[in-house]
Structures are given as structure tokens and as C-alpha cells.
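Hi there,

I know you've been waiting on this one. I reran it after we fixed the sequence typo, so this is the corrected version. Both the input and the resulting structure follow.
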Amino acid sequence: MIGFATLTGPLPKAGVVVVALLAALTLLASDRRARAAAMLGALALSPVLLLADIWSSPQLRLVHDHPLVAVAGAAVAVGVLVAAAALVARRPAVIAPLAVLALPFRVPIQAGGKTSNLLVPLYLVVAAGSLSWAGSALIGGREARRTAAAQRRRAEDLGRHRARDGGAPVARPSGRWAQLLGAGGGRTGLALWVERLLALFVVLYAVQAIYSPDFETALQNVVFFYVPFALLYGLLRDMTWTARMLRTCLGLTVALAVVFSLVGFAEYATKTIILNPRLVVANDLHTYFTVNSVFFDPDIFGRYLALVMILLSVVLLYPGPQREQLTATLVLAVLWSCLVLTLSRSSLGALLVGLAVLAALRFKPSRALVAAAAVIALGAAAIAASPTTFGLNQGVNGASSGRGGLVSGGLSLFADRPVWGYGAGSFSAEYEAHHRAAGSALSASHTIPVTIAAEQGVIGELVYVALVACAIACLVRGARGDPVRSAVAAAFVALIFHTMLYADFLEDPATWALLAIGVVLAGAGGAAARGGGAAARGRGAGGEAELGAARAAVG
């Protein structure tokens, strides 16, 4: 109660910095017990910070009026979470497919006077997985230390004195989670720098929230996105990504995309929107009709479809069974048709960029450049032939749905405070204050580098650029000829392109998931993770075993 009173009083900003440091520790800590403690601390502190933020909001009236009922409900929720963690502890491998299933589902929830579409199912998966992992690390670590001590005593009794000779048994993690640990423990080079920069970005964002005029938004970004997604990254990074697990996750992702597309087709046929009242109004005002399926925003739906199409397109680029390639072609046709109905130009552009990266990694880069030049030339010819179709008669700002004005406004904010910016999460408030856009619902410039420049200045921009460059280099280097790594790298580059035209970079769990899987596959144990030790040994004999395992994964 004292800690809660402190967070609701003089030190709420300190709490955000602390929880960000705990999230960073889960990314960087090599000691399993330290990382487990950081996980538990982040899980415990995040809801306290959120409650402190929304304590006076109307949605907590029940808590104020009936505190005992609220406490009982919280106890039940904790009990359910602990039970779920116990189930996960028996089969930790289910975390990966469960995360894939929960990744796209958002639930509208009011927090701090705003309605946010939150990834509640994914939060439950992350919390259960983190509790399970932390329990395994703490309990299993004690068991391992007892075993090591017993072995040491037996060795001393036999007169071998292993402790003095440096041969004493080493305490190793035990339990089912330990059996799943893959390449995550041996990260070096670019993979390690990716995680360092991720941790630095999260901590820097929390520090720059201290002087933000919209601290509430910054707090919610940390609690709703950065902290749980950092935990998700750690869980996925520590998995051994076998061909079977990769194939399962891809199959679930494709199945979800097909189901979402069918919902989109039903929306278009009935001219009915399930979510987003603003989209209903927009469709009534225009001759065209935009679908969003179970997603609140058509651009988010379009991005999801584009990423799935990129991952699935690898099946067509490498030799494989004709039946699988025919199935992939039919699925791609369905997804493409629904992507067109989203009218998301940013998603269509991201798809083209991702396919270009795939082509460059599969074939000679010169051929990919020629194909890209041809596509650009055809697009330019189509725009020149019918400029009104693409909205160019409305000017750059009209054709980009107002993004031109947001970008120019963001750049002017950056010019006012170029070094440290206006503070994390402050773009909407400062844009409204400087450009009199009262009543607008914007939350970012829809161009992530501009948003970061306005909010965090050169300091944040340098960390962002370094993170993106390091991540792309880590995922792309050595991916040529490897279907799985090529698919992950292409999807990540496409996502980066999409953030240049839309919001959400580290606020999207897909970013963290692609990075986690890509880091594992790019690490020293990547070959073993995909095809076992035989694939790793097969490198010296032509590498066919590894390539075969990779093909099996995307098959």
C-alpha cells in the first residue's frame, strides 16, 4: 500500500523508469535468476503503474465503491494466471503457437479517458509464459545448485577434489524450459547489439517521458507495449526454433489470415463494418468501401496480410512439391484480393518492398533491381495517365490522407527542440498546441522517424537509426539461399517500410516477434535450431542438410 501510494503521489515517473529498466534487464541479463527476478518485477509493477494512472477515471468506479469485490476479482485473476503458468510449465513449447494465435487480436479498453485497442489475449500469453519461465529459473536453479553441491561432496569424498582442480560440476538450468533453450544463450555480434539497442530504446523512452507534457500517453506505451513485448521477445528468443515449430507457426498465421480475409469479404458483400465507427462514417461518405475485418484499422489489417503474404511467398521461390506450391498460390490469391479491399496503399507498398527483398536474396540483386525498376516505371505511367485516380489533383497532402501536413508539422517540432525533443508520447499534444489541430484524433506523424525526432530529438533518432540498421544487417547477412531467414528478413524490412507511412514500430508485437525469431536463426546455433546438429555438420559437406531443413520449415 505504501508503494502504491508513492506511485500515485510523488514518484509515478520514477516507476516508469524502473519498469523500463526491468524490461531492459530481461533482454540483457545472462544470469537466469536475475532475469527471472526482472520478469517478475516488471509483471508486478506494470499493473500498479496503470492503476495509478487511471485511479480517478470513471471505469474504476466499481473498485472505489466495492473494494472487496475488486480485491476478490483480482485474486481470481491472479489464480487463473498462476494456473495457466503451471500448464505452460508442462509444455513450454506452446508459448510460440499461442503467441502467434494471440498476435492480431485487440480488445477496445478505456484507459485514462481514451479508448485503446489492446492486445489483451497476447498479454495473458506473455504473463503466463513469463511466470512459467521465471518459476523454472528460480526453482530449477535451486535444484541444480543442490545437485552440483551433492556431486561436489561425493567427488571430495572420493578424493578427487574437483573443486580445487577446476573440475567441479557446474549448476545448469533444469526443467522443461531448460530443454527448450536454443541459441538465445549464445548471442554474439550483431544479434547482441540488436538486444542492447532495444533495451536502450526502451529505457531512453521512459527517461524522456519524465519531461513529456503527455506523460500519460508515454506511460501507457511503456506498460501496454514496450514492457510486455520485451518479455515476449525474451520468451521467443529462448525457444529452439525447429522446422516443426516454424511450420506450425506459419500454418497458424496463414490460417488466421485466410479467416480474417473471409470476414473482410463478408463485410464488403454486406457493406457492414464490425469495428471502428469512424470507418463506418467514412464508408458512408465515399463511393468506395474499405474493410477492416477484426482489426480496428484497415491499415493494420493490410499490414498483417502483407506480412503473411511475404512469409508465404517463399514457398514459390524455392523448389518444392507442386501440390504445396499450388496451395500457396491459391491462398496468396485470396489474401491479395482482401488486401486490395483494405485500400491500404502503405500495405501494398510494404508488400512490394518485401517481395523485392525476397527476390534479391533468392536471385541476383541486379535482377531484383531490374524488376523493381519495371514496377516503378509501370506505376509512374499509371499515375501519369490518370492522376485523379490516385488523388494527385488534391495535392501531396490530400493524396496522402493528410500525412504531408503531419510530417511537415513534426519536422517543425523537431526544429524547435532538435536535441532532446518534447518528450516521449508528446507528438499529439504538441502538434495540437503548435498547429491548432484541436479535436483531431492523431497520435503520431504516421512516419515513425519524424515522430521520434519530434518527441525524442537527435538522441532518440540516433538510437532508432542504429537499431533499424543493426537489425536489418543481422537478419539479412547470411540469409541468401536460406528460405526461412529470407522470409523473416523480408517481412521485417517490409514492416520498417510500412512504419514510414503509418504509425507503430516497437508498438507492434510483430516487430518483436520477427526480431526474436530472426536473431535465433541468425545466431551461431541457427543451423542447429532449424535442422539439428546434423544440419550444422552438413555445412562442411555442402550444407544440403541445413537447406533441406529450411525448406521443410516453409513447406
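Quick highlight: Residues 2-205 form one domain.

Best,
R. S.
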